[in-house]
Specification:
single chain, six-stranded mixed sheet, six-stranded mixed barrel, 22 helices, 26 strands
Amino acid sequence: MSSSPTLVRTTCTRDCPDACGLVATVDGDRVVRLQGDPEHPITRGFLCYRVGTHYLSRQHSPERLTTPRLRKDGRSTPVSWDEAFDVLASTLDRIRRESGAAAILHLQGGGSLGMLKNLNGVFSRLLGATETRGDVCDAAGAWACEQDFGAVDASALHDLENARGVVLWGKNVAASSPHTATFVKDARRAGAEVVLVDPLPHRTLALADRFVQPRPGGDAALALGAARAILDAGRAAPDLDAYTEHRAEYEALVRTRDVAGWAAEADVPVEEVRALARFFVERAPVTTLLGWGMQRRRNGATQVRAVNALHALTGNLGRPGAGASFSTSRRAPFDLAVKDALADRVPRTLRVATLGHDVLAADDPPIRAVLIDNMNPVATNPDAGTTRRALESRDFVCVIDQFDTDTTATADLVLPTTTMLEEDDLVGAYGHHHVSAARAVVPPPDGPRTDLAIYQELARRLDLGDALEGTPREWMTRLGGRLRDGGVTLDDLARGAPRAPRAPLVAWEGRRFATPSGRFRFLTDLPATPPDDPDYPLRFQALSTGRWQASQLTRADEEREGALVCTVHPDAAPGIEDGGEAWLESRVGRLRVVVRHDDRYRKDTVYVPRARSVADGRCVNAIISARLTDHGEGAAYYDEGVRLRAV
């Protein structure tokens, strides 16, 4: 007689700010349903399509990798785990002896945001391998917040109930953070006015009372124009000097153009700039939720700093309902000393945003082997072609993954790993302050192993000592030391999602900042603006979608999604009918697309969903150059000029 299905609480560890609480319905060794945890203070009982509807088809997909595969005579051949470890360990050991461990590169992405994934980096540091620096996600925005506030943090989402005004600045919460959207809805119902600032119209428009549509990359000019209008009207916060520094230099920068000049640079009507200025003063307290796309530009850090400065100028910082929120720190609640203590073992770093170019250029020693986990860089990094060539030209590439990807196609060895429903872990969030635990609600199928088990075995075979030894539960206890010091135990995490100890309800309350002076730091200059390319006049916006997570599509998913769809204003595609096919071309390459017309779009903008398959000719990163942001060594994805040409 079979037992009844059971309900098990766990946490989503995918790369998303919401870090949702899950309730898994388990029947035997199979998860048959995923629901949002109704007791989780952020999830509040519902899930996005990507997890609630789509994830179980991925979990149970027949495409799932279950056996190590080794390239032999040009073919990827199933092998035992013993053979896989023998080959991997002997290859890394030989390269380490011949060229030094710096010839081995460890690449780790955000495929899982569980805290135990930091132990993958402990392995690479024990080995002495090369690591990466910067980020393809949030590097410029994080750098900007560290400059302005001294650290990256944000107010609690529940503090939105105190706001009279909410600005969604480049933040499509409907797609990228649907649980944040519910808090915005609550604030609006309570009387807050909501403004959406974005070059693109999207589903989040339904939450907004007003829509401001600057040119792509024009956000800094818009913020500085609003600041100029505030200064001209004498409506800056009266106590600015008590909590800011570099005020004179900032005001001089703002006054380099009048309101009309800044409006022209942002390509926004002057009255809309003035209305935004009035909004920050008259609707105070105002909270701005900043999106991650606006900082993925060559002036990305400057754009975030300009918005932060507008908050400081108007006094919308450090009190209930007021603040500029880019991100919370998901790592801050946890004790990562075991990894941090090994930082001096890293012999060098390469920039992840220009990964392919940096790998090809690395010398003394050249990169000979690459270990990749939680990452599909061929599809997700800019300049996919160069990234692929860089990996294919190495002596040995090992990829740890759950499915075949554009990156596993470059690998000599592929190792199958477990999913988030088969692992125990700790979870922080970068969209709120609640912490929780992930739980192995079902055992994995025969074959896949956890990242921790893989790196522990490899450490043994390479005689790296016992620093990585321990069960997942023992490591959760170690990494949870800060939580325990603050009164939060692992048992508390098993029962729910408490707020992290010492996490603020109001960021920078009392206007006390983490800078050396304790004051907010205004920006004082702007980066040079590169000229537009007249041969490629359209600005390429390749953004996330609510249908899949990053590049995590199976082959079946790719087939269902079909052709790559490009959305533009009709005037941006002359001679190309709605539904017609075209080449979307950049100086890097071209993609075949189906064109859709939308007269709400700017005439200089193209939108395509990001992170499809390179092999299928549908990956936007195949036509995006590898460029760096102005600060933080982030990836400037959204400055690519493109054009459309009928097929």
